[in-house]
Each structure stands twice: as structure tokens, then as C-alpha cells.
Amino acid sequence: MLGAATAAHQVEGNNINSDCWVMEQLPHSSYDEPSLDAVDHYNRYEEDIKLMADAGLNTYRFSVEWARIQPTKDSWEASEIEHYRNVLKFCHKTGIKPIVTMHHFSSPKWLITEGGWESPKVVEYFADYCARAACELGDLMEYVFTINEANMRLQLASLIKDMKNRMKRTESDVQVGVNLMRENMQKAAMEAAQAFGVDDPGKVCNFVSLCTPEGDLLVMKAHEAARDAMKKECPHLKIGLTLSLHDMQWIPDGEENAKKEWDDEFTHYLPYIQKDDFLGAQCYTRKCYGPDGTVQSATNTSYTQMGYEDYPQAIGNVVRAAARDFKGDIIVTENGIATDNDNRRAEFINEALESIQACIMDGIPVKGYMYWSLLDNFEWQKGYSKTFGLIAVDRATQKRYPKGSLKALGAWAEQ
Description:
alpha/beta, eight-stranded parallel barrel
């Protein structure tokens, strides 16, 4: 499976019932700008999927938006289910295999009011949503991911703790567009509490927020409950989750630090994914460790717009590391580069896929590669300034401009 990926909130536009939309509108928002119409994928998905097919891609990973389907706790929008049925149907019509993610960072506003991802109630709520969606969409689906980057909450909590302790960590140490330690954060927290109707800013627990160890476990319980509930409705579905992973490397006396980070990032989740049909591996770069923590790679030559080291070989190394512990199929569900140099993007794709091809030649069961992302889109709190896409978008007109990198990725389908 060779394709590209998107996330609903980042591309669809006007996701007005989501927690992210609420957070974007705050007077002291941590978002650089609001998502607004995004790149209008909600209305232009046929054009975008056709561009993929024309380029030779055969798979599209996208998310359905919980906040659209269940905008309030007691409502269920049949028209939104029909919208996603139409997306799935068009994928099949154009020869594109859909891979569906049930939750990609954004949650319904009402869920946060109910305690969000630190409340035990989220397990039942998420499982019920996934089961009903599977019942109504499952005949058009095969591969499903419950939760995108299920380890992201714990990664952010660790990063913020280290930054508060003045350790040498930056926002680029997590593979998502966030703005941390900004001015007026206390005001923003108070505004968020008021917007979500909770009495304590610490109770605003969306998916990209501080996480307790108990909250980390709740994500895994929600995954297991959702997986089992969907399997009950549709036994044919192949179900897993995705994890944000780094290629862990080290210099002398840094190996133990690297191994501890890998355990935090990956191996401690293994008990909760043993019954999964596959693992979604997501990686953009590497981390290098010394005896006192992270160090700069001695061979580094350049960084991406996100502040990551430009290191395409990381994805192959991550797949090999994951395969040592996870004995099942692996799908690369995100890998890409934020750059305004599309020639470099095409080179990055070729180098990354060469590393994946080597994994396959060595017998590692890699079943697919999804580039992030199909379109230049809304990189969460970083807004529209980061360009990952295979397709550029003029947001004033929403006109699409396929890049040379789209053809470069499609050319691998013929190999």
C-alpha cells in the first residue's frame, strides 16, 4: 500500500464542534492562527483523491471526525456519516484503498467538558462512538486505526516537565506542531476552562495536553475497548493504533538513556497492542543520546521547518526497532518533511522508501507507506506556515497545485 495521509481537522475546515476549534478562538490562544476553512477538503475530497490516483498512489489514510459525527453527547449526525460513506465510496471508485483513523487528536467539545482524556468515562464514550461508526461504515472499510499517536500525551507531559526543569528540550522534540511555554499561558488556561465549562484549568484535558500516568493508561484502555467493540460489529476489520516514534541513537555512555526513552515511547505499550492486527509506525527524525541526555548529532547537516533534523533513514531504523518487539504487520502511517524545497522533498521520499524497501528485503512485514501529508495543511498550533504536502493549496482560492514530489512518490508504485 503506497499513499498519503491527512487528518480531518487539519484539512476539512469548519470543524466547529471540536475542542481544537474552541482552543483556536481563545483571546490568548496558543494557536498561531485559527483553522477556519482549512483547505476545504470536506468539499473537495473528490478532486484530492483523484489527484492521488492519477499520480499512481493506491492508498489514502484519513480520519473521520468524532466532533462532526457526534457533535453533542446525545446526538448522532446521519448526514455526516453519509459524508464519510461518500468519501469511502469515492476511494473505492478510483482504485484507492482507504485506511481510516477514528481519532486524530481533535475531540468533541462535550467530551472535554465531561473530563476529556483524563476521565475514565472516555473509555466507554470512545468505544460507543467507534462501534456505531463501524456499524454504519464498516462495509466500506478494511484497515482501521483507533487512535493516532496514542503515546503523544505522555510525550508532551515528559517534554513540558523537562522544559520546566530547564533541561535542554524544545518543541521539536515531539512530532507535532505545538507552542509551549508561551506568554499568557495562564490567561489561556483560564479562558479554556471557561469555554469548556469546567471549574479548574487543570481539568481541560484534550488529547494534546498534559497527561498523567493514569491518563496514558486510559488511552490504551480506550483503544482496546474500541478495537473489541468494532470487531464485534464488523469481524472482518483489521484494527491497530499508531505511535509517534523516533530513531533512537547514542554516543558512548548514552545507550541506557536511549533505551529508557524507547521504553517510554514504545515498549511499555506492547501489552495493550498484542491483539492488534498491525502497528502504525510514525517517524520524522532521530534523537541522539549521551550520558546526560539528548545531544546534537555529529553528522547533522540541515533541519526542517519543524526544527527536526532532516534524516530520512530514521523511518527504516524505527521499523526495524519496532519489529524486534512487535511480532505483526507494520504500516508506516506517517513519514515526511516540512520544507519549501520540493526537490528536497522528492529526495527525502526516495531515501525514506529505500530504507523501507531494505526492511522488506530483510523479511520485515511492512505492508504500506503513507507519506505525510497529501496537502499543505493546518499544522495544529503552528498554523499554515509548515509545508509538508505533496499538493500545494492557494487558500484564497482553494486551488490545488500538485508538486513534483507527488509524482516522485507515485513512481514507486511501478517498482
